[in-house]
Here is the input.
Amino acid sequence: MTPSTDWNAWHDAYRDPASELSRRLAFVQGQIRDVLNSLDGPVTITSACAGDGRDVLEVLAEREDADRVRVVLIETDEQNIRRAEHRLWDDEIANVEIRQADAGTTSSYAGAVPADLLLMCGVMGNIVDDDVRTLVGQLPSMCRPGTVVLWTRTREAPDLTPRIREWFAESDFQEESFFAPLDDDTLISVGRHRFAGTPAPFEPGRHLFTFVR
Here is the structure.
């Protein structure tokens, strides 16, 4: 299936602070702040399907210790990349690499993993269920002990999030939080898992997922 979503227009929902996308962003950014506050010394963050990077870059722009954070944003869309670049220039953020690459293959992560924080936000709701399971199963090759993975997924029926949480457990991740508002009209969810197992060897060229939206 060829993806048909206009990902630039998709970002328009951020203009409404009450939108599901804005609410999800606020929670993800809160988690990023919490992870950064819990770590001393240099920190590495890798973001898959990063869009314009606002989840990470807006957090770094407000921090006095942003220079200790190295970020790799993996994104294919040129307009999103240009917006991310403008954020870097406007906010004078250093140590950020933007890779125009397919986050659906492990080769795109070479040199960017293992990371202290791995963002898989906006990924799992846009790929088929089998690819979600494949992705989670491959994450141990992209983590070091203690790596935190943040992920998002809609809870639209059929809700896959219970299975996703099981797959993380099967891959030696410990769940630290699962944010799922109880509002009738809000179906967002954000998971936070910490890797507690033995890292698997990193293998370039492995398929992770294909976007279908």
